[in-house]
Records
---
Amino acid sequence: KNQVEQSPQSLIILEGKNCTLQCNYTVSPFSNLRWYKQDTGRGPVSLTIMTFSENTKSNGRYTATLDADTKQSSLHITASQLSDSASYICVVLGGSTLGRLYFGRGTQLTVWP
Amino acid sequence: EPEVTQTPSHQVTQMGQEVILRCVPISNHLYFYWYRQILGQKVEFLVSFYNNEISEKSEIFDDQFSVERPDGSNFTLKIRSTKLEDSAMYFCASTPGTGGSNYGYTFGSGTRLTVV
């Protein structure tokens, strides 16, 4: 069954600290893996897109890693800011000809001052 | 930056009523999608649409659902006879090409549907 699992479910950190979010997936065939940020009541916004051959990709303070062999990904956030408080969702594209997005449940990150 | 626009932002309807959720995808995008998110749960795929026809649909997208691109700009999701379990946030998305080409999906802000 095509699934995406994330951990932790929620995380609280202090402003300025770093954190790492985890993602495991079983989607097959695999096209690419994306990390999205979703603010409450809003649509998901893309942070990174990683293909099978990419191990690391950065977007500002966000760095995503992908291990296609173990089907694991992580999202590292450095020097967190209050505005980073949101749900971070791991999304895998695959599983069909055109590809549908398979969403994880998300990690709810709260950054405290 | 181009946006996907969804209307209305909130919709409350009585069980059994028909609702139409509207979306204006990004103008040069070719692929359109509907996803939904029940409160506290994962975002789920409903349907993809290309070249004026459904490309793929999920198990959720039964005969109560239909999609249409009535003109060159709008993309609609119709639920014929709403049920309580249809209450969710519905997201429209569009891409210029297939996701397998690593195109970004642009999501709208969603329509929160509440069936009472």
---
Amino acid sequence: EAGVAQSPRYKIIEKRQSVAFWCNPISGHATLYWYQQILGQGPKLLIQFQNNGVVDDSQLPKDRFSAERLKGVDSTLKIQPAKLEDSAVYLCASSRWYLGSSGNTIYFGEGSWLTVV
Amino acid sequence: DAKTTQPTSMDCAEGRAANLPCNHSTISGNEYVYWYRQIHSQGPQYIIHGLKNNETNEMASLIITEDRKSSTLILPHATLRDTAVYYCIVLSGGSNYKLTFGKGTLLTVNP
């Protein structure tokens, strides 16, 4: 079973520029998550999709971050304009359905490393 | 959300068992305990999860106390590749389950 795919792996941009990250979840997984992980901290949930609908985006800075999941499969996370404090690893994850049920869990990609200079 | 408390760091000798504790005294009856780990420069990796009973898989064992207020993750024979940050997470319930990560425990396995 292929894992969660993310691209690009690394990105360096100047502040006020824009950047987009792409994620392809594990086949058949209805739930998709984007997490932000700042160096030295645990991952923080930005947005959660169930199929192509948003379930939770309470911690997404909506003035500069946007995300979409067209057709309920791939997803894109965009930052525009970027700030220095956006330097972090952006992790995409997916799961079959709601967590907690027997055998269900969430799988993470390798992450996209963003440096804003 | 039920919060967890973990030691900041731990050391373990290669080949010995690594026992990682986690306190979750405010856990609710229907909340699961999940363990993930994150090796440097990689995404978090699922290890194991449980509700009430002890659980074991090919990676580790999870021991949950009877009152469910704490748990221990056991890596039976730690190797150098097990050096990572280990996260104990109580799964927040409701209609949209999500994992909320703390700072975790940095486990260093020494040769």
